[in-house]
Amino acid sequence: MIIMVNIILVPLWTAMAIQPNLLQAKGIQVLPPVNFTLTVTALAEVLLHWKPNPDQQQNYTVIYDVEIISPVQEMYDTKHTHSTRTVVLHDGFSAQIRTLLFYNSSKIGSEWVTEELPALAGDAETSVTNLFCIVYTASYNTPSLHCNWFAGKQAPTDTVYLLFYRYNNYTEQCPDYLQDKWQRNVGCRFSKTYIDPKQIGTLIIIHVNGSSKHAAIKPLEQLFNQDTIEKINPPRNVTISLEQNDTLVTWEKPISPLSKAWFCYEVIIHNLKTGTNQLSKSTSNDFKFRMDVTSRYSIQIRANRQYNEGFWSEWTDPLFIGEEQKKNQVGWVLILVTVTTCFITLFIAMACKMCHLWSRLFPPIPTPKNNLKDLFSAKDYEIRYNFSLAPHRECYTRARTYTSETETEVGSYIDDLGSYNEDLYCEVLEDSVI
Ligand SMILES: *[C@@H]1O[C@H](CO)[C@@H](O)[C@H](O)[C@H]1NC(C)=O
Ligand SMILES: *[C@@H]1O[C@H](CO)[C@@H](O)[C@H](O)[C@H]1NC(C)=O
Ligand SMILES: *[C@@H]1O[C@H](CO)[C@@H](O)[C@H](O)[C@H]1NC(C)=O
Ligand SMILES: *[C@@H]1O[C@H](CO)[C@@H](O)[C@H](O)[C@H]1NC(C)=O
Ligand SMILES: *[C@@H]1O[C@H](CO)[C@@H](O)[C@H](O)[C@H]1NC(C)=O
Ligand SMILES: *[C@@H]1O[C@H](CO)[C@@H](O)[C@H](O)[C@H]1NC(C)=O
Ligand SMILES: *[C@@H]1O[C@H](CO)[C@@H](O)[C@H](O)[C@H]1NC(C)=O
């Protein structure tokens, strides 16, 4: 860009260095525009406005040469006396303009007039950092917008950040923030936005400012192209069919107002027998592959905009095809069953021991006034009885009942020491039995 600008500038400046004298001799003046102003008309939008020099001779064609100096260098010509730019303004903005007069098939420039906007006020390192936004188009008409950021390094703990987005003429403040451990806003969700999913390449302008009692919070602006921050929906209706010796995978485009032609896909075919993955790209809505009949495969697909501009969708749920042929399948099943049975038996045995022990210490319905001897004998009885019926569930129930009733000293003791372990053992036991 800069190189190109230089190449264009050189002949222009050469022409200007030679021409003015010649023009003066002929009584032709090229005068700079007047009343050049910069006005912020919306978030990250500046209007450049100027007037033709009233002393400029009217019988020559003039245009204006505009150079944006910062934040991003840009040069262009215009016939108009105004121009609007969308650009981040937190670090200020500066531009210069001049009149260009056409004379004898060359362009002769006037002096430049420069104007600038100061940087937005605020203390160093109080701006948010790592600002990032994603557009979700889960339903056709109301894309949502999620943004996240980090608080600035020097942002006091009482900082309140506010986020605004602008899309064409619409500006909205964030209605729903996520907060960090100091309750500072560090994320935002717009569940509905004015973002039009049919638009291509429209900018989403984000402005985050803030306030604090202890520091001036410097605003930050950032521009996102809606195409590059859209999280694409996954492909739909994936089907697998056999076509002669090939396996044909087909799917439909993701939910989106954009047509089929806008999407590309990745297909991952995972061979469960060999453990190998085959990743392929596709711009059509189907994919063929040759199966090894002794293998089982899982197939998943994800979508993106063509040229991978957006964020890849989630992978679709895996679809399986083929039967893996194992030789000693029956043998393996037998071994598995035996091992599982052993473990279950062991667990039951251990759990019975545990529950028995705890039950001894604590009655099923402990009342603070019971004397200890009564308590033990009553419990022994109940436990034996219960074990013969449903030991595991009883064990679980007991643990639960107990922790909710911890008024006696014995109660608080078990609370400290035992309830967690007991719950844990019994839950494991239940899981393994069920
Ligand atoms: C430029 O601005 C000044 C002061 O605002 C005004 O008096 C003058 O008429 C303007 N010039 C033109 C050409 O509009
Ligand atoms: C433009 O007008 C000036 C006088 O106002 C005259 O000297 C000049 O020759 C004119 N140029 C053209 C191209 O008409
Ligand atoms: C226009 O330019 C050509 C060469 O660039 C020159 O020969 C000619 O004299 C010029 N005419 C006038 C009117 O300046
Ligand atoms: C924004 O609003 C102005 C007038 O209010 C209108 O002329 C313009 O077309 C609108 N632009 C967009 C992109 O909606
Ligand atoms: C933050 O920006 C919004 C939108 O430009 C503005 O209305 C608001 O006054 C600003 N707040 C602070 C604290 O700068
Ligand atoms: C899924 O695909 C099949 C076969 O192409 C088609 O018959 C069916 O209508 C599709 N289902 C949906 C929900 O699009
Ligand atoms: C399919 O595979 C079988 C066995 O490998 C082969 O005989 C047959 O020609 C193949 N058919 C096609 C259409 O490739």
Automatic annotation (TrEMBL):
Signal peptide per UniProt: 1-17
Superkingdom field: Eukaryota
Protein topology in the membrane: Single-pass type I membrane protein
Gene Ontology molecular-function annotations: cytokine receptor activity
The keyword Transferase is assigned to this record: no
Major localization class: membrane
Keywords: Glycoprotein, Membrane, Receptor, Signal, Transmembrane, Transmembrane helix
Type I cytokine receptor cytokine-binding domain sequence ranges: 130-226
Location of this chain's protein in the cell: Membrane
Pfam families per the UniProt record, alphabetical: IL6Ra-bind
Keyword Membrane included in the entry's annotation: yes
Parts of the chain that traverse the membrane: 330-352
Entries under CDD domains matching the protein: FN3
InterPro entries assigned to the protein according to its UniProt record, in alphabetical order: FN3_dom, FN3_sf, Ig-like_fold, Short_hematopoietin_rcpt_2_CS, TypeI_recpt_CBD
Cross-referenced PROSITE patterns: HEMATOPO_REC_S_F2
CC terms in the record's Gene Ontology section: external side of plasma membrane
PANTHER family in the cross-refs: CYTOKINE RECEPTOR, INTERLEUKIN 5 RECEPTOR SUBUNIT ALPHA
Protein name: Interleukin-5 receptor subunit alpha
